[in-house]
């Protein structure tokens, strides 16, 4: 739609010139007109004739209201008449209002009577736009009244909206059904509402100086959507500038960080217990094949490598400089690193913004910008990239190569990632600490890991985003190809308080993060352990080719709990067709339950498991399997694990690659069986019916967002 | 309040006699009058004078409505006038309505005009009572309109309600704030609403034949609560009879089941792999000190014990007979058991109601009733009671004595309980299978474990309740003394479908279960693993003496996630007073954050942990501690674990017994450290910030319900 941008530009300039930030009602109306935002027709009448002709123009019924600077309480003054349905009634009403006003206050200056189109009864909704510190312009939608104010039933999206995004907002509130018509009401005009959302989003996108738009209430009915009240505010200051880099620039530095030919360790040390010693040893012990240059003015050799007094003394090129010196020495060393032309500095030291020392951090950022050095950190544990056998960290080396890249904003969470990875033998491509994020951050990592063939899944712990728009742009692209899991800490009011004491970051409202991360195709993990479990299981699970999930269980009790978990995770239990039901029944005892869950009952031999699982894999109408195992002497845990591993492996060899997960109930042998299954491509868990379904649910959420599930 | 029960009795008898189950509006009004349920005053007027005097009696304003069997669309006929505020207006209105009606339909028979009290504008709410298959009479409350119909924002309680329960309903809906007055509205008269709920609950409690009451809508305002529409239905049939036992009867049999002097095994066998062999060996190997009598007509001795041809041949008294024979032999053997006077039979065999063979189950129940034998099962794994060293099960023995009793309706879940207990070394007093619950069930177990000094916590997996009222009665009593954790399977629509295919049990609506279990003081576990984790941690945690929770963390990142978890679990982060803040600051680096979380920062030595934890334990204003550990070389995991164990132990020795939980982030050594801490009274978990807070939250939920937290 063609908006009249010129008139809005002129109007905003005029408002700016007058020094105001709040627009008047007529100014709001002018902007609404320019952007096709429907508001009630209105006109000022100074005679009964004028009132009648205005009313005839806008259509009956109308509302009449006294206009007088001296009458604040119009209703009290008898200055409001509603629902006037004909020319005669409007004429009489005009005279009556004027008479009432004079009777109420003889001295009042009377400008006239406002004639206003009366809105058809409809559903009250709220449409707004605001400027989020993380994401910039965002659009909000909710139902009016109690639902928004008490239940906070509201949804957010980045502006501008495309048509699909605008339409999706109508379905993203809890009370979405109301818009479809309940209690005998007609459904609202969804196109009109979605169109209104789009127009508001375009307005704030076109004019970033508009900090806030409130259409509240909007009356939505079967015949359209009309904004009964409009409030527009302009920003007081200018939006902050965020440095922007091109994809090529990001990839160029990230390639050198992750696949360096040479690494210098500034502050390398021979002294056990020193960070500069740990980093050196991890680089050496981790098997990094490139050059390792220790830098230390007081040593000739460190970990059997020649040491250099300063980075400038290193003869060859240096791709990465890892800093392991105290904060106060960083600026000087960073100048040398910059002079040497090193593209990236890994700043392990703490003592910057996280301790309140913002100036020190600003200083190093300025030095880095001057020299074109990109920074990771400060205040981090370093990073791992297993395809390069690179452990540029003071933690212990990690060498189980695999396809998941994990990042964390906090060192503690990084250590939890490391321990969990080691104990579960999770295959990892990278673990990266971001700490204070003075420069490189999650969107840079997304850009790199998105195109990194060694990485099939990305899991990120974060407390804030420096540039929400850059993150969303990267996540949108990457999540079409591989799952992006995010643990957003500071979700709650209590959590957000801790976040601001920790990093000084302004934690945004969680609902905004939640909606916009989903809009970006990100899978959100509700907690730390969930993020780790998703990261471990998602790369193992193939992408489901449809929504039909079947539970095959030997324990009816587990079947019920697995079904509960399916509902919790938005999975659809397949409605089993009669022929398939009959096929399952051929393999299970007469008192077993076919249907879904398929309950093969508890005392069955391996052959029953094998036959039913094989059936589930082979039938193309079934898209995913959830297995419920119950420990018996007839089919012990490892027998079950081996047969499932074999049957699934055979199916994959035949080109049938469906997600299969398992819940194992039994004595402690089920732990070993679960490990075996995981190693054979079946995420399996002992003593829980929730986890296998949660990871399958996460895979589905990703696949749906990425548009990978055929309809 | 004194209700007029006699008039209701007479009215219901009259309705019954007429063969109806639906009450007419005047009958509904009569019942409302008898129970003090306010409905709008109304009267029939056949003259303008009568209309005026009725209106004067009920108070202005009033509504007038034509009463004519020939006029269905009263409004269309000009037969309704609202808001008539004076005698004159009512008089004129009467005449007008009659005139309008005659003009509308000259032939219409006109009975007169109904004068109705006009309700003040108020909040629409819904109050109802219904008959739940599990819980019997229950009362429902919700806000009218969209909130109930679309968002299902409704809450339930058992009838009858006491005043506190009735009041609690007003706070148990999501939109509770609406009743307190939002958007300028006055708060509603809470006493009037709660009183109305109580009266409805008393009505259905007094007259069980009333199957349903609907007051919809009720207009609640600052001046009262008036039911604008009343619908009352009577039950078609008679409620089913559930056998009732006294507490003494239950305890008498449960004592003999759990602490038997002698156990007979019907179907004992020497053949490895047979259930009758497993049970014998578990009894013997488990160390049961009483008599063990194998019963098998074909053997002289089993597991080195003299075998008997039938139970009748056993010389001494037998407390428990464990059945390990196929279903078809159970009735005959049960007759013999009954004749022998054995008080309890443990029916391991399957092949009864769970396979559709309801008749077989009815048969054994009848035999048992005839002889006064109580039944556990059929279709179970048996049971464990560790204080008696009793493993009457075909699973493996379990011998880690402790204070939690667990029960499960399903064998698979029972095996998960066993494996989890063994791997976590969870101290257990009992594990009991209930299976088909033909007789003994969860409320019998609650009665026994409630008074069992060996049991401090009870955790139950269940899919249905045979007698919801008996369960609630037992749970209410027991949960005042010890936590009762329930995993209710079949929570969701999908889950409920699986439940009915599994046990034939009618899974009730989950919201009813949820509200009523909470009303009974039960802690509900969201999933299997949660139930197990609660069961393990709750007996270890002391009861908190107040709501002030403090997080002490070495990793700011964990602090944020722990704070998120506190909000998720309804825990209150203490607002730290200035003097306490200063005291914490004395021990932590200047860039650490006091406040709450107390962030001691990552590089601190054991002394900092010790000083801050000691401060948290010693200050009486702090009631619970959550510790966030981050693996460093300065304070390695086991150093942390030992110091926390020591400091907490010393405090307990000094009489300071506060709940302390811990989240450990780090390399795999944190697993051993977590185990150590758990063994030393501090529930601790690696790689998760959620679990420690979840178990603390469960302890708080219990303690609040039990009234154990001082205000």
TrEMBL record, chains A, B:
InterPro entries: ATP-grasp, ATP_grasp_subdomain_1, CoA-bd, Ligase_CoA_dom, NAD(P)-bd_dom_sf, Succ_CoA_lig_flav_dom, Succinyl-CoA_synth-like. SUPFAM superfamilies: Glutathione synthetase ATP-binding domain-like, NAD(P)-binding Rossmann-fold domains, Succinyl-CoA synthetase domains. Residues 29-65 form the ATP-grasp domain. Transmembrane segments: none annotated. It comes from the Bacteria. One of its GO terms (molecular function) is ligase activity. The keyword ATP-binding applies. Keywords: ATP-binding, Ligase, Nucleotide-binding. This is Acetate--CoA ligase family protein. It comes from Actinomadura alba.
